[in-house]
Amino acid sequence: MKDSTKERLNAYAQLVLEYGRIHNISGAKTFQSVMSNINDSIEPLEWMDYWGENCIDVGSGAGFPALPLAISLPQTQFHLFEPISKKSAFLHLVKTELKLDNVAVHRVRIEDYPPFFADTITSRALTNTRSFIELIRPFATSKTTLLLYKGSRAKEETKGLNSVKIISRKERKYVLIKDFL
Q1: What is the rounded distance in angstroms from the CA atom of residue 80 to the CA atom of residue 87?
Q2: Which ranges constitute the DSSP H helices of 24-152?
Q3: Which helix (H) or strand (E) element contains residue 158?
Q4: Residues 107-151 pLDDT 10s
Q5: Which domain CATH number covers 167?
């Protein structure tokens, strides 16, 4: 990882802590817990080769996993969907402060936004997998990859789906789904 990327990830962590003290945007209240969320977010960079030109993150909240990924993948355009005002305001703040030209913040539910196609679609703890697939279907093509940050129910939620790969790291289950249309 480049030093400039590490610096930007640390700056993001500081913003999460500062903004979070006032606006309660994340459960992470210490630098260590924010860094743990950042490391969780960027873990797929170790084993996921292709991200494409456009990535959508649904229910972005405080920016996990999208902002650490956007910082690490400046060549990929990230569209963050977060309808809650204080959280989308925070996402705009980070975009501006860190000069993230590859980030677009949409303060709207994804189902209320005009569809466009994404190469990768991410989400962390938004809804069950089958409901999520229905939600993002208008934004997917046959080549779109889903990367879902799940917990202990990952295997149960993906039962019966094709082209599913689950990568386990401690309590986190990273669910990769291709060919889901």
Answers
A1: 11
A2: 31-42, 66-72, 85-97, 129-136
A3: helix 154-158
A4: 999 999 999 999 999 999 778 999 999 999 999 999 999 999 999
A5: 3.40.50.150
